[in-house]
Specification:
By secondary structure, the protein is an alpha/beta fold. The chain contains 19 helices and 15 strands. The radius of gyration is 23 Å and the shape is globular.
Amino acid sequence: MATESMLKFVGREQAYPAKREAEARAEDFREIAERYAVPTAEDQAGRCSQCGVPYCSVHCPLHNHIPDWLRLTAEGRLREAYELSNATSTMPEICGRICPQDRLCEGNCVIEFTGHGAVTIGSVEKFITDTAWEEGWVEPLVPGKPRGQSVAVIGAGPAGLTAAEYLRGNGYDVHVYDRHDRAGGLLTYGIPGFKLEKPVVMRRVERLKAGGIVFHEGFEVGRDASLDELRQRHDAVLVATGVYRARAIDVPDQAGDRVVAALDYLIASNRKGFGDAVPAFDEGALDAAGKHVVVIGGGDTAMDCVRTAIRQGAASVKCLYRRDRANMPGSQREVGNAEEEGAEFIWLSAPAAFAADGTVTARRMRLGAPDASGRRAPEADPVGDFTLHADLVVKALGFDAEELPKLWNAPELGVSRWGTVLVDGKTLMTSLDGVFAAGDIVRGASLVVWAIRDGRDVAKTMHQWLRAQAKAEKVAA
């Protein structure tokens, strides 16, 4: 039964945390929104209607107990709210920052459908856990009773880190192997600071290290050890590498280093934020300062590139996307933020050629019949092409899987025709005994919240398998 603090959505207007002025926020990589003050968070949480069937939870990949921790927040019981939020998610404050709530929980909020505006779920989630860190409520990772078995996790992104945390909590020795010199995967190097400030990620990583998880950073499977060698060192292996190979544009390209991949561009920018030396940035190839920039793509990665270029001091930033605004895959909030900061969107356009002098030939597009995804497919518009100038072109067309069987000298590792790793639907084990896989390397490029869900799920099946193995060995002995 709802308390008196709830059901305030009729008389209390929706209010997100205030955003800094566009001109000011475009000058730095700090997060653009301030955090709720305690009374505001309680007031906004109190707008929840406490639905009998909470569609917000249903549409959350983690099935977070959203109405329950909203009620606790509204009642001022913030520590309990945090504990409940943390019960289903290893990174609630990160999801609160970067989940596309407009497409998930908030987009399916019942009071949104009544015209009163959704509960600001993501902002409250961020507030709860940030408060927990400040108050010391975030407890250390306590390892379970030692089991004498070890697990290798390949990839220190959200899926790998989540699985590592649960497995360590179950008493396993956990070793995380990652090619980068810092853990976090795309959370660290792919997502800009204006959406996710890096200390927020690093404190999560440090908590895992303090809990006894061993990180092997700068470690590349296939170079420093083969997959088979890792299988010999450990009782089980989890493949959680994500997908990093940039999709290509099949157009004439004579622009040389003027055309760069989105992830190369974002990694360079994030490394500079850490104070690293990045030759390609320092020499200008991956720095947008003073340049006319064109970003190609319509997803969240494209928005990250657009907004990064603005902060680097680009002379102009344009984004080409082959569909219209209503049919783009990225968050509409991110598009709005980019427009406020000075980006220009050229809808229904696609690149046709890149010239050595910086001329980009673009093709006008129109929307035809729906494709397999249900969206109307883009097709060339007879109205013809147009040109624009670009000193830097950033390709943000999405990511595909790398050729892991070849890179890791593991031809027996089963993959799909798209290069994603094939797993058993129930156990999440690959074609190799004791080797599991989770996250984007299985489902393809997706959301961080799905990677966390996959990490949680695979940790459970790995735990079951490892217990069975230990039992079998005990019987055999």
